[in-house]
Amino acid sequence: MKDIASTADVAGTASIGTDTRIWHLAQIREDATVGSNCNIGRGAYVGPGVRVGDNCKLQNYALVYEPARLADGVFIGPAAVLTNDLHPRAITPDGILKNSDDWEAVGVTVGKGASIGARAVCVAPVRIGEWATVAAGAVVTKDVPDYAVVVGVPARQAGWVGEAGHPLKQDDGGTWLCPVTGRRYIEADGHLLPADMD
């Protein structure tokens, strides 16, 4: 079962998974795929051919431009933007309005369980790692490692976060600990891995 508001604009060629809710004024473009059990907020935009995994949340007025790829469990905060143009211009050097043949779309890839905060901007092409967190208002111009927390303009790493979304705390032995789940992580060469995966 799908719950699509009568005022939402869902293209006939879009694929919408079961138990997905699409709210007032949201737009899902041609050939986009939205997985099962997702929540697409008021005024959110999903561009042509974008892929959204299962159990994702796109909050009100989130803008996800093609060819973005969102894995399962991704959170996109209110008014966050995933861009798609390296050299944005409305017109060509000749003064003619640009069309789809005048530029090549590049996308943002968001890993499983990652969160993009309110009004954050991810400037394509970047990859947001699994379980990473982009703080509200941040502007991401470089790839974000799995489990990293990035903040600021331009975004820079400010720590690590676990699957529960809480900042990790380093213990005396040098490992990182989630205060909610008790799971331990090991940092090596600028990357973080759960201790039970090494």
Write the layout of secondary structure elements.
Elements: E1 3-4, E2 9-10, E3 15-16, E4 21-22, E5 27-28, E6 33-34, E7 39-40, E8 45-46, E9 51-52, E10 57-58, E11 63-64, E12 69-70, E13 75-76, E14 81-82, E15 109-110, E16 115-116, E17 121-122, E18 127-128, E19 133-134, E20 139-140, E21 148-151, E22 156-160, E23 169-170, E24 176-177, E25 184-188, E26 191-194
Parallel strand pairs: 1-4, 2-5, 3-6, 4-7, 5-8, 6-9, 7-10, 8-11, 9-12, 10-13, 11-14, 12-15, 13-16, 14-17, 15-18, 16-19, 17-20, 19-21
Antiparallel strand pairs: 21-22, 23-24, 24-25, 25-26
List keywords for this structure.
mainly beta; UDP N-Acetylglucosamine Acyltransferase, domain 1; seven-stranded parallel beta sheet; 0% helix
Question: Overview of this structure, please?
Answer:
- This protein has strands at residues 3-4, 9-10, 15-16, 21-22, 27-28, 33-34, 39-40, 45-46, 51-52, 57-58, 63-64, 69-70, 75-76, 81-82, 109-110, 115-116, 121-122, 127-128, 133-134, 139-140, 148-151, 156-160, 169-170, 176-177, 184-188, 191-194.
- The chain has two domains: 1-161, 3 Solenoid (UDP N-Acetylglucosamine Acyltransferase, domain 1); 162-198, no CATH class.
- It has a nine-stranded mixed sheet, with no helix packed on it. Strands 2-5-8-11-14-17-20 form a seven-stranded parallel sheet, with no helix packed on it. A six-stranded parallel sheet has the order 3-6-9-12-15-18, with no helix packed on it.
- It contains no helices and 26 strands.
- Strand 21 and strand 22 (156-160) form a beta hairpin.
- The protein is an all-beta fold and 198 residues long.
- The mean pLDDT is 95.
